[in-house]
Amino acid sequence: MNIETLISQAAGQAVKALYGMEASEKMLQLQKTRSEFEGNLTLVVFPFVKAAKKSPEQTAQEIGQYLVDNCSAVEKFNVVKGFLNLSIGEGAWLQLLQAMDSDEHYGMKQADENAPLVMIEYSSPNTNKPLHLGHVRNNLLGWSLAQIMEANGNKVVKTNIVNDRGIHICKSMLAWLKYGNGETPESSGKKGDHLIGDYYVAFDKHYREEVKELVAQGMDEEKAKQEAPLIKEAHEMLVKWENNDPEVRALWEKMNNWVYAGFDETYKKMGVGFDKIYYESQTYLKGKAKVEEGLAKGLFERHEDNSVWADLTNEGLDQKLLLRSDGTSVYMTQDIGTAEMRFKDFPIDKMIYVVGNEQNYHFQVLSILLDRLGFKWGKELVHFSYGMVELPNGKMKSREGTVVDADDLMQLMVDDAYKTSMELGKFDDMTEEERREIARIVGMGALKYFILKVDARKNMLFNPEESIDFNGNTGPFIQYTYARIRSILRKAEAEGLKPACAAAQLAEKEVELIQKMSEFGAAVEQAGKDYSPSGIANYCYELTKVFNQFYHDFSILNEADEQKKAVRLMLAKNVAKIIKNGMSLLGIEVPERM
Questions:
Q1: What is the side-by-side order of every strand in the sheet holding 41-44?
Q2: What's the angle, vertex CA 294, arms to CA 291 and CA 298, rounded to 5?
Q3: Percentage of the chain surpassing pLDDT 70?
Q4: Model confidence at 1, in pLDDT bands (50, 70, 90)?
Q5: Percent of the chain clearing pLDDT 90 (strictly above)
Q6: How many CB atoms neighbour CB 221 within 10 A?
Q7: Which of 33, 35, 30 is nearest to 47 (CA)?
Q8: Main-chain dihedrals φ then ψ at residue 132, nearest 5 degrees
Q9: Alpha-carbon distance 367 to 157, whole Å?
């Protein structure tokens, strides 16, 4: 139990004993005492004044005295108007530090067999192009959210839905047939996803030329877009695919496998993965069947042109198309089919979709439809809606000339980390192999932290140069502090020194550090409630700052008093542990030395 909980419970007992009042948890919330006042924690007593029938000052005085007499953690108190400032005794802080040290996963909960199952969907790539900067934000948010939900005692299943069918896939396939000359990832030396992405771009280039030519011949532009030979061929290929044409299906399988091999490489570099991958090609027919089932139950309606619609006007929305007049499915239908498959595979209690904010309306509708169709989590599904990520103009244009490729971006970050570390002399006594590994950890840490420290709902500007900085609110600053602590602990071990909670007098900065560490559990819990990786990033930064202020003012290894030295080593050891655990919730590694 942390000190806040202990004192909050004691304050509840005080109010009951003194005024016969049952105080709610909300009434008993403590906050950190403001720096201009003496104390560690403050209780606002205004909610108890009516029951006490006394002034706020008298009420605070009585509760404070009760706590000093009955709660061993409270050493003394002072009253400022209706605010009761409590000073925690040294013994209580050392006890708390000892409790932290004995729990390897301090601040994080373990799932038990009755824990709710949370499924998180993220990534959702198309098999016609490689992953780009937008996917990087999506994957990092999804992975981090999964770690945070697990740390809050949930069972978690990480899933991906791959968009592996449709007209856009046929465009790449057709372009490869027409212009590829049998090129393969092996013959070209390109990753499979990059190779296929190049053919998607090639299709677009030739298609635009055809449209331009038809317009020059006097055709209306909209008609030209429909009549261009390439787009007609792509549609014909899609029909063949839907009719299981063996040649088209064989080509589709071959090219998709190239892409999957490329994706796997990118996911591995990014440090993300999935427990189960679903494919649209396997879910869209199930979605159609589910819609037909809903139609038979009167949940949906068929229009004269044979299309099927959901009437959502009672929910304040419009009508939503579920099946086109030719019977083909739309994205909504596919999402219903995927939900059906997932619900059969797993006993889902909560479903979280990590998808950009341009899809807000889609998920509002999906929630209503899944609820109508009887999915127990339909109404409560969570759309983890995030903003777009942009770059300073003109920087890092990818081979397509329009988007930033994920592989290029990650490589650039690792290269920059290597270059910066070399310039700062951080690699002087290392082997080349160790330099490369630390550059990877620091480069990827810089990228992940820069993206995850921003509130996910906001659009963000990603600046690679700002992210690799060993000072300020960056991944490398936190990683460097961790590596510095590990270095101190290694030296202490070599000198035969051991961390311990000895009976030493604690300085104010040491108390502040223990108090900041004790807030980790609350930060994890809040991040889980808010679905907010940025909450964890900001906590890690705050803890790192508090440690560095302490380290600036107090020596650890050169402290003459052996008991103080042992306590400071204990402080350092647990700061490192919490930084490591906190950063791991963001999918960020920390190096043992830098």
A1: 30-32, 41-44, 83-88, 74-80
A2: 135
A3: 98
A4: low
A5: 84
A6: 10
A7: 30
A8: -125, -175
A9: 20
Contacts of 428 (CB under 8 A, 6+ apart): none
CA atoms within 13 A of residue 7's CA, in its CB half-sphere? 29
What b/e string do you get for 207-216 counting C-beta neighbours within 10 Å, with b at 16 or more?
A: beebbeebee
What's the per-residue H, E or C state across 210-245? HHHHHHHCCCCHHHHHHHCHHHHHHHHHHHHHHCCC
138-142, 226-230, 330-334, 517-521: which has the minimum mean pLDDT? 330-334
DSSP E strand boundaries for 452-536: 460-461
Chain-centroid distance, C-alpha 25: 29
Nearest of 78, 34, 39, 41 to residue 60 by alpha carbon: 78
CB atoms within 10 A of CB 463: 11
| Amino acid at position 178, single letter | K
- C-alpha dihedral (449, 451, 452, 457), degrees to nearest 10: 160
For the packed helices 133-151 and 246-270, what is the interaxial angle rounded to 10 degrees? Answer: 60
Cβ(572)–Cβ(513) below 8 Å: no
Question: Can you give the pLDDT at residue 393?
Answer: 61
Average pLDDT of every residue of the chain: 93
List, in order of start, the domains of the chain with CATH numbers: 3-88 (3.30.1360.70), 165-272 (no CATH), 407-584 (1.10.730.10)
Q: What is the DSSP string of 160-224?
A: EEEB--SHHHHHHHHHHHHH-TT--HHHHT--HHHHHHHHHHHHHHHHHHHHHHHHHTT--HHHH
Report, as an integer, the average pLDDT of 79-87: 94
Is residue 80 helix, strand or coil? Answer: strand
What's the pLDDT at 400? 43
How is residue 150 written in tokens?
A: 């697990």
> Cα(311)–Cα(300) distance, rounded to whole angstroms?
7
The helix or strand, by DSSP H or E, that contains position 145, with its residue range, turns out to be helix 133-151
The predicted model scores a pTM of: 0.91
